[in-house]
């Protein structure tokens, strides 16, 4: 299964947070096709600049976690801009668009994302 991880899922996985169910953690530990979007690194960097996330090396830790990197393309940007206005968060809209464009299953707990026509693995 090809997965795209929402930002909170990546953060929970990195922190070994019990919020992330052990079954999902086990999948992420062995799934070779689990992707982290450049939008996630962008979101983490923005939140760090606002003083909302630590540690300082968090983006580097995400990059080093072994997940596949998914760049943002103009196709993704256009698709995100054309989504119905269910979700206002630009980072989450980008993840939905990327999952749709790249035929990925989006791993999330976000109730607004779950209203889009996108394959989901709910956590």
TrEMBL record:
Pfam families: PIN (PF01850)
UniProt key word Magnesium: yes
Domain (PIN) ranges: 4-117
Alphabetized PANTHER family for the sequence: RIBONUCLEASE VAPC16, RIBONUCLEASE VAPC16-RELATED
Swiss-Prot/TrEMBL keywords: Hydrolase, Magnesium, Metal-binding, Nuclease
Name of this chain's protein: Twitching motility protein PilT
InterPro entries reported for this sequence: PIN-like_dom_sf (IPR029060), PIN_dom (IPR002716), PIN_Sll0205 (IPR041705), TA_system_RNase (IPR052919)
Molecular function GO terms recorded: hydrolase activity; metal ion binding; nuclease activity
Organism encoding this protein: Phytohabitans flavus
């Amino acid at each position: 299964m090809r997965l795209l991880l929402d930002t909170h899922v990546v953060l929970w996985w990195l922190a070994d947070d019990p919020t992330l169910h052990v079954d999902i953690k086990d999948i992420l530990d062995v799934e070779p096709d689990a992707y982290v979007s450049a939008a996630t690194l962008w979101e983490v960097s923005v939140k760090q600049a606002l003083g909302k996330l630590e540690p300082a090396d968090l983006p580097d830790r995400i990059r080093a976690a072994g997940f596949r990197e998914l760049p943002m393309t103009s196709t993704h940007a256009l698709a995100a801009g054309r989504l119905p206005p269910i979700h206002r968060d630009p980072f989450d809209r980008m993840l939905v668009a990327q999952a749709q464009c790249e035929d990925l299953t989006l791993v999330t707990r976000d109730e607004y994302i779950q209203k889009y026509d996108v394959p989901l693995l709910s956590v």
